[in-house]
Amino acid sequence: MHIKTLLNHVTKFKGFVFQNPQLCRRSNKLLIPVVPRKNSKPICSRCGQPGSAYDHLQQRQFFLPPIWNIMVVLVYTMRRVDCRFCGKVIVEQVPWSTGKSPVTKQFAAFLAFWARKLSWKETAVSFRVSWDIVADAVTWVVQWGLTHRNLENVTAIGVDEIQYHGGHNYLTLVYQIDKHCRRLLWIGKERKKKTLHAFCDFMGEQRCKAIEFVCSDMWKAYIKVIADRLSDAVHILDRFHIVGNLNKAVDEVRRSEVKKLKDDGKPAYLKNSRWLFLKKKKRIRGTARTRLREILGMNLRTVKAYLFKEDFDHLWTYKSTTWASTFIDEWTRDVMRHRSLPELKKFARTIRQHKELILNYFRAKKEFSSGIVEGFNNKAKLTIRKSYGFRSDKLREIALYHTLGNLPVPELTHRFV
Ligand SMILES: [Zn+2]
Predict the structure, then answer these.
(1) Distance 87 CA to ligand 1 centre (A)
(2) Residue 44 C-alpha to ligand 1 middle, in angstroms?
(3) Element (H or E) spanning 257, and its range?
(4) Hey, which of 18, 170, 234, 235 has its CA 20 to 30 A from 178?
(5) pLDDT along the chain (417 residues), means of 10
(6) Residues within 5 A (CB) of ion ligand 1
(7) Whole-prediction pTM value?
(8) Angle at Cα 203 formed by Cα 198 and Cα 209, nearest 5°?
(9) Rounded to the nearest 10 degrees, what angle do helices 370-386 and 393-404 cross at?
């Protein structure tokens, strides 16, 4: 079988034909010359209309996915079109090219496919291209996906925030959390009111009206905009974020007590105990469990806060909204009685203030469990950590959409991967 036959089997470019390939043994490249089909007219890259050829540019090389560890390179001399619609001479459009990049659409899709499984760096090394080429490939595929994705039928969303640059900056991420489709929908800078307004503008009034459920944390800016712009939706303060805030409050109690014990010259009972109090009791085993039991026997503020935290976990077991409501009332009342726990009291006050939105979680029959947003949040964090070297906001967003966006991929990919 000829290599040409093989090529025609996996990909065909309308208006162009492959010529006999040559193997360059020195560079381990398979060079495949491509020429325009007889009488075919070049297409203007600006307006997409055919025109007559004006002149030729320099020969260019375009990379296809490698076979048997051999680089496969299309060699083509670009024409310029004398376009009567645009009224000037414009470079032609070729079906395999993604623009100025030497990577074909086929290779871009191939690299992007692997860049979801490997890191960008590993992908570059594995397929012997530069890191920039992988970045360009992923960018092209993501942009293709963003323009071709369907934004209809979004009825449930989760709003989440994520820190980057060592915690100094925030991104707001909006996920679609419908049963039929879960994906990252949108990324915005910071976590201000204007951030979420920008999301609503992006979706448009019609699509915003279709949204029935919104999950978010207790961040004021979000709550305000959701009440404002997504007023038809049931707003749910989700479990994942509430538990996160409670853990934070308990840790604040612990930290201030560690300092107090030290200042008073007392033994460091709580040294290195952070995770003991953050983990669920039933998940702690072995010597850690013994240590926790010892600490729990002491008269410490942290212990009180911890016991309140463990108790709060009961909330999520209720099926009835009424019972959940009573539980919140009682729990917050008990916390408010403890003058020694200002950090936890602050948390209890917010819980009281947003009780109705928390109860929406039970009204929605817990359909939007914390697991969905939490899962996305973990994956997003991992992507940000992996992409730490990017230093470019745009590439960070591209990486997030690439891993979490569940984007459609160009038709041409499946024949290569
Ligand atoms: Zn034109």
Answers:
(1) 7
(2) 5
(3) helix 239-263
(4) 170
(5) 80 88 90 92 92 92 89 94 93 88 91 90 90 92 95 92 82 91 94 94 94 87 92 85 90 91 85 80 81 84 92 91 94 92 93 89 77 86 75 87 92 56
(6) 44, 46-47, 83, 85-86
(7) 0.80
(8) 115
(9) 140
